[in-house]
Design a protein that fits this description.
Helix content is 45%, strand content 13%. It has 437 residues and is α/β, with parallel strands linked by helices. It has two domains: 190 residues, Rossmann fold; 223 residues, 3-Layer(aba) Sandwich (Rossmann fold). Helix 1 links the parallel strand 1 and strand 2. Nicotinamide-adenine-dinucleotide binds next to helix 1 and helix 5.
Length: 437
């Protein structure tokens, strides 16, 4: 089939390359001419494992190309996927829909009669209906669940597909687009527009709630003297709860969960069905960043527990491992906050250095973990890269000025670090050791 993908960021660039991999002819469209030039030259302008190879394979096969021209895209596509951003509005928690509105208007103007416009961006419930009423085109909503770091496999082998459709023809076209994926046994859920939109925001709200639940338990453990990692292990054995997403830490960030739960809460309030608990989920999440700052203060221990002049090494800048995405990154938030308090902060991340430097030019940066840790007074482990989990506490002890570490991801072994002489602090864990007896 002839497809276009409008908006070639994390979601759209992946979707375009994966649709070519499924055998379609694809044009990617973006208003960012630099991004289009990079993609057209085979360069993915962000870090996503496996995407570069897929992109280059299909530029070479001739099935994939990129343009800034809506005219070209409109004349070409039978199905147009809209994958533009839906960031948080500047003035409220609502999603900013200006990019979705502009992209739909532009492609609706240029689309051939009979073309299908498919929204993939995460939007407040009611958006698909509004767009379908505003433009004389066939519309569908096909929310996306990919995870950065696993984007290619999640697109080619998703857990499920969701089609929000209001005509048999729209469903048929989408079934044809995803035929190889459906043929591999991927479950398909078809729904009306509002349900399809809500599936995405509900899924993100559930995940955020699970993370904030265990982080709230960490808060209680901190004052009660419990160990949240042992608690999580014990409750996770219950099938109904399960062990995933129960690692207490500095919480979630990124370009999706924080803005999506805010937009969902905002929209639900507008509709008169408020989701007050999502406000608390958000608040718990933000408090965990503050807790890491407090622990750093505690470890610095100077007069008034000041961090003034302390050398603090921050391991991680991306909001999660295997990504260079720093949008709403807890690691950089904590780093910037400590720097504001007078600390001498040095950040290292295996992939996100360029993005971090652009967004936080005044922080210190190192080219390796070793360089970041050189003569550090406190180490903060804030993004769970495999490289950081593999650090040998006995060896690393020689790099720092004082062996003190905060594990903001609950991913390091406290006993091993303590045994090598480290003052080890975790979130929701008693200082220096484990709660297991
Ligand atoms: P992004 O910021 O990386 O990409 C958005 C792209 O849209 C940019 O390249 C921008 O230049 C382009 N754009 C903006 N206006 C345009 C227009 N009028 N025409 C053409 N292009 C335009 O964002 P993203 O992370 O890819 O997210 C896109 C959407 O997908 C959001 O709604 C997000 O919530 C959703 N989503 C993202 C992920 C993820 O992991 N990143 C996962 C699932 C869903």
């Amino acid at each position: 089939m002839r497809l276009t993908v409008i908006g070639t960021g994390y979601l759209g660039a992946t979707h375009a390359a994966c649709m070519a991999e499924l055998g379609h002819e694809v044009i990617g469209v973006d208003v960012d001419a630099d991004k289009i030039a990079a993609l057209g030259a085979g360069r993915v302008p962000f870090h996503e494992p496996g995407l570069g190879e897929l992109l280059r394979r299909h530029l070479d096969s001739g099935r994939l190309r990129f343009t800034t021209s809506y005219e070209e895209a409109g004349a070409f596509g039978e199905v147009h996927f809209v994958c533009v951003g839906t960031p948080q509005s500047r003035r409220s928690d609502a999603a900013d829909l200006r990019y979705v509105d502009a992209a739909f208007a532009a492609i609706a103007r240029h689309a051939e009669p009979g073309a299908l416009l498919v929204g993939k961006s995460t939007v407040p419930v009611g958006t698909a209906r509004r767009l379908a009423d505003a433009h004389p085109v066939d519309v569908a909503w096909n929310p996306e669940f990919l995870r950065e770091g696993f984007a290619v496999q999640d697109t080619l082998r998703p857990d499920r597909l969701v089609f929000g459709v209001e005509s048999a023809r729209a469903e048929e076209l989408l079934r044809e687009v995803y035929a190889p994926v459906l043929g591999a046994g991927t479950p398909l859920v078809t729904a009306d527009f509002p349900t399809a939109e809500l599936v995405k925001t509900a899924a993100n709200a559930f995940l955020a709630t699970k993370i904030s639940f265990i982080n709230a338990m960490a808060e209680v453990c901190e004052v009660a003297g419990g160990d949240v990692s042992v608690l999580a292990e014990a409750i996770g054995h219950d099938d109904r709860i399960g062990p995933k997403f129960l690692r207490a830490g500095v919480g979630f960030g990124g370009g999706c969960l924080p803005k999506d739960i805010r937009a969902f809460a905002h929209r639900a309030e507008e509709l008169g069905a408020p989701l007050a608990f999502l406000r608390e989920v958000d608040a718990i999440n933000m408090r965990r960043r503050e807790r890491v700052v407090e622990l750093a203060r505690e470890l610095c221990g100077g007069p008034g527990r000041s961090v003034m002049g302390a050398r603090i090494a921050v391991l991680g800048a991306a909001f999660k491992p295997d990504s260079d995405d720093i949008r709403d990154s807890p690691a950089l938030n904590v780093a910037a906050r400590l720097q504001l308090d007078g600390a001498d902060v040095t950040v290292y991340d295996p992939e996100a250095m360029d993005n971090a430097r652009k967004a936080f030019p005044l922080l210190g940066y190192a080219l390796s973990a070793r360089e970041a840790l050189h003569r550090a007074d406190v180490v903060l482990h804030l993004t769970e890269w495999a490289e950081f989990r593999a650090l040998d506490p006995a060896q690393v002890r020689h790099w720092v000025s004082r062996p003190r570490i905060v594990d903001g991801r609950g991913a390091l072994d406290p006993a091993a670090w303590a045994a090598s002489g480290w003052d080890f602090r975790g979130l929701g864990r008693p200082p220096g050791g484990e709660g297991k007896r």
